[in-house]
Amino acid sequence: MIAGAVVAALGVGVGLWATDDADGSGAADPAARSSPEAAAPSPSRSYALSKEPRTIPAVRDHTPARGPGWQPEKAHRVVVADASLADEGRLIAGELGLTYAGEKDDERAGDVRLDVRADEGADAESYTMTVRDGRVTVTGPAEAGVYYGTRTLKQAVDGGGTAPEGVVRDEPAKPRRGFMLDIARKHYDADWIKDRIRELGDLKFNELGLHFSDDQAFRIESDSHPEIVSDDHLTKAEVKEIVDLAASRHITVVPEIDSPGHLGAVLAAHPDLQLRNAQGTPTRGAIDISDPEAAEIVDDLLNEYADLFPGSQWHLGADEYQALTVPNPEASYPQLAAAAREAYGAGATVADLTTGWLNGRAKTVQAHDRTPRAWNDGFFRDTSVEPLEDIQVAYWTGKEIGARQPAEYLSAGRDVLNYNDEFLYYVLGEPQTFVYPTGERIYERWTPRVLRGTQAVDAKYDDQILGGSFAVWGDLPNSQTQAQVADGIRLPLAATVQKLWDPDRPELSWADFRALADRLG
């Protein structure tokens, strides 16, 4: 009766810990009964088998055990096995109100220990979190995995919760889990962006895209071309703070200078580079790619910002070049047609010249050891010039002229990132046919294989889909305040990362998932 009362008081899911009766039968080990320490019943017999921690994204594997679990107390320490984990150790110690003790070999009650343990072939973002004997150990093959383990621990004990006894083994399904922010059409202050980075880090996102150049504005300080920078912009010092904070959360900042379209802010200061049709009418946002100075100014910017954004990824844009939206580009833009023939032969087209432009910009960022990506409508069918093989496809729409199904890119062997505008586009003001996406719809109906519309591509292409990104666009920038944007994207971000971490149908209902997201803040 007393033991049963203890179980009832503690609750079924209070925690779990490894015990001698791993099968949960409660049968004691005969050898243990013969020792003096075993004269009294083991306290572990009073605990129910633990349940997995409730986190976003959900952990993928949890081995339950019996025991009280772990809760943070002021006297507890965070220790690291290697100095390389000092940032992760200090962060989780500060978040949980613990003492960061640095590198220690001794063990104390209540310790949280972080350790990198090389495991050849293991995902660098994988981790193991073990709760046992009143202590927590988080290990991984690299610092990123250990960091994600601390995010699981933080969420497990949020609001007075308990990290359950047992072992969590976890890793993401997709290596690219992103959030893209259009800071060109709408200016966001540095502190707001930093708050989003902290939110993204806790959710185990690992990319932040910054689209900072468009027709409306150019939003980052420039030394090579200060004349193009808008009044409201981020200084390089602010960007460095953003990049450094992101790096501390294992988030790569992916810059985007879109070209050869969407360059209106650059062209406002360089009208001589504006593309004009045969009648001399300027073409909105489009640079004249037949003019060698066009490539020079864009490459100046790409080279300048390579030092500011040291991550491995770069977005080249390449979408919606207006010269290719007319019925006969060669007739409408004879200067582009002439340049195409000169560069690629008698039968070359404006699409060939535009593909050559994309390849040129890709080579510029590849010289800085960056992997380029471009929007899917920057890739054209039936051209004699092929996009470089290493350019990844950022698939966002199937509405462009000559639209191609995602399988065409995948069957050609290209790696693809999912920006599906049917689910993942938060367009301010809901222009055209856009509506604000909901977390529920993403949670219930989207997976990384749903690249276009609502239909998934064949499972055989799954490995080529590197991940995806939720995107905020500022088409009608005054439609929402920064605070409204933050509130509007909170649940969609949580749902997106859940499906990027584990695309299988979630265990929790949407109502329970939303309640969890609300509790975690």
**Radius of gyration computed on alpha carbons:** 27 Å
Largest sheet: 8 strands, parallel, barrel
| Total number of helices | 15
Strand content: 15-25%
- Spatial separation of the terminal alpha carbons: 40 Å
Q: What is the total tally of β strands?
A: 18
The parts where pLDDT drops under 50 for at least 5 residues are 1-44
List the quaternary state of the chains: single chain
| CATH C-level name of the largest domain | Alpha Beta
Q: Provide the CATH architecture of the largest domain.
A: Alpha-Beta Barrel
Which structural class fits the helix and strand makeup?
alpha/beta
- The proportion of residues forming helix, as a percent range, comes to 25-40%
GO molecular function: beta-N-acetylhexosaminidase activity
Keywords: Glycosidase, Hydrolase
GO biological process, one term: carbohydrate metabolic process
Biased composition (Low complexity): 21-50
Descriptive account of the structure:
By secondary structure, the chain is of the alpha/beta class. It folds into 2 domains: 61-170, Chitobiase/beta-hexosaminidase domain 2-like (Chitobiase, domain 2, 2-Layer Sandwich), CATH 3.30.379; 176-514, TIM Barrel (Alpha-Beta Barrel). The chain is built from 15 helices and 18 strands. The protein has helices spanning 2-10, 30-33, 86-96, 143-156, 190-202, 236-248, 264-269, 292-306, 329-332, 334-344, 350-366, 406-411, 439-445, 482-501, 510-520, and strands spanning 61-64, 77-80, 99-103, 112-116, 127-132, 135-140, 166-170, 176-182, 207-213, 252-259, 274-276, 282-287, 313-317, 371-375, 392-395, 416-418, 425-427, 465-473. It has an 8-stranded parallel β-barrel with strand order 8-9-10-13-14-15-16-18, surrounded by 4 helices. A 7-stranded mixed beta sheet has the order 1-7-5-6-4-2-3, covered by helices on one side. A two-stranded antiparallel ribbon has the order 11-12. Helix 6 (236-248) links the parallel strand 9 and strand 10. The longest helix is centred in the C-terminal third of the chain and has 20 residues, at 482-501. It is elongated. Residues 21-74 are annotated as: Disordered. InterPro entries: Beta_hexosaminidase_sua/sub (IPR025705), GH (IPR017853), GH20_Enzymes (IPR052764), Glyco_hydro_20_cat (IPR015883), Hex-like_dom2 (IPR029018), HEX_bac_N (IPR015882). It holds the Pfam family Glyco_hydro_20. Residues 51-64 have a biased composition (Basic and acidic residues).
